[in-house]
Amino acid sequence: MERIYLDHAATSLYRPKEVMEAVIEAMETMGNDGRGSHGEALASSRIIYDTRSLLNELFHGEGAEQVAFTANATQALNTALKGILNPGDTLITTVLEHNSVLRPAYELEESGVCLRIIESDSLGRFPYERLEQVMEEETERQKKRWESLGQRGAVVFVGTHASNLTGNLTDIRKIGQICARFQALFLLDASQTAGIFPIDMIGDGIDVVCFTGHKSLMGPQGTGGLCVKKKVRIRPLLSGGSGVMTYEKKHPFRMPTALEAGTLNGHGIAGLRAGLLYLKKQGVDHLRRKEQDLLRQFYQEVCSIRNVTVYGDFSSFDRAPILSLNIGDLDSGEVSDRLSEEYGIDTRPGGHCAPLMHEALGCREQGAVRFSFSHFNTEEQIKKAVIAVRELAEME
Ligand SMILES: Cc1ncc(COP(=O)(O)O)c(C=O)c1O
């Protein structure tokens, strides 16, 4: 039985062969970036710097040195959130978020940050008007704090570019404009969209982009990072060896070293670089259209199958290539297991680390079966997935 992998929102499985080759070559040739001036160390520095440049170009940031590497988006989001916010500040977010935003946000709330989580509608769409209202309320509250306590906290918004459950896309330019109007910082979780959608930090008014390397950027697991505007100061989450300023007691404050401690995942970053070069050659827009065509093909068939509930807003296909569904009252884990065992189709059931989105859509108990597509998938594979869903729905 052919195995069909439709879980690319969790991690990419099909990758360009150049990525694997780059990792092997790096393991054979790379020394430690910033730790010495011999050829192997310099080779490592060159590859890592080049990867920073490619990421800076992809996100239209303020310079290669403003890109710091982490192990994944979770570490990048923790670094940004915990390194920016102080007690008394306001953090605004939405129910669309992944636990890599929500859990650090709850921790910050415990330490005295005012946390506001905005609801979506029943299709999981981003609440722009509500964001404006909450921004207004929080700016006002911070003004009053200034008048009574002489302290005015920052207002920060953090949000995902696309829901990892519904695939609904948010209009980042609109959010950037709202944040700019209220002088709030805008932190973007680009885990589901980096490498699929254009992200323009300068044009869209984004202050920090947090990304992961192992999804649509086509890199290996263990890669990720954050791209930071120069005006944003982030305290390091970790401190330690940096290869520079060895006799200082404090970790260096200059980017990117400020947010990197210890040896980087150079081998993984070399693979990520190959992934970025592949995306550049293929064109992000071209790859996205292929993925959205597969999504459209799948949606148009499954949405009319009796007993199937599809979650999210499909009024436009300008969305991430994700579709989550349920069949009748069947547990999503059972459906996903049967898809895997009887049809060879890999999907992701359960809660997808997005508890509030599930609650908003009313599928907390059942979970949902998530199908997510890559440009490496084929129309034939989508047809097989449709047949599988139809047969399971007919049996129910
Ligand atoms: C929207 C979103 N944010 C953050 C993450 C966390 O990414 P990572 O597991 O690479 O840290 C994910 C992963 O699925 C995600 O979908």
Short structural summary:
With 396 residues, this protein is α/β, with parallel strands linked by helices. Helix content is 42%, strand content 13%.
Strand and helix layout:
Layout: E1 4-5, H1 17-29, H2 39-59, E2 67-70, H3 73-84, E3 90-94, H4 99-110, E4 114-118, H5 128-149, E5 155-160, H6 172-181, E6 185-189, H7 201-204, E7 208-212, E8 224-228, H8 266-282, H9 284-302, E9 308-311, E10 322-327, H10 332-343, E11 345-346, H11 355-361, E12 369-372, H12 379-395
Parallel strand pairs: 1-11, 3-4, 3-5, 5-6, 6-7
Antiparallel strand pairs: 2-8, 7-8, 9-10, 10-12
- The portion of residues forming beta strands comes to 5-15%
CATH level-four homologous superfamily name of the largest domain: Type I PLP-dependent aspartate aminotransferase-like (Major domain)
Mean pLDDT figure:
96
How many DSSP-defined strands? 12
Rg from C-alpha positions? 22 Å
Unreliable residue stretches? none
State the major sheet: 7 strands, mixed
C-alpha termini separation:
24 Å
Task: Domain count, please report it.
Answer: 2
The H-and-E topology, N to C, reads as EHHEHEHEHEHEHEEHHEEHEHEH
Identify the CATH architecture of the largest domain: 3-Layer(aba) Sandwich
CATH topology of the largest domain: Aspartate Aminotransferase, domain 2
Share of residues in helices? 40-55%
Bound molecules: pyridoxal-5'-phosphate
Q: Which term fits the overall shape?
A: globular
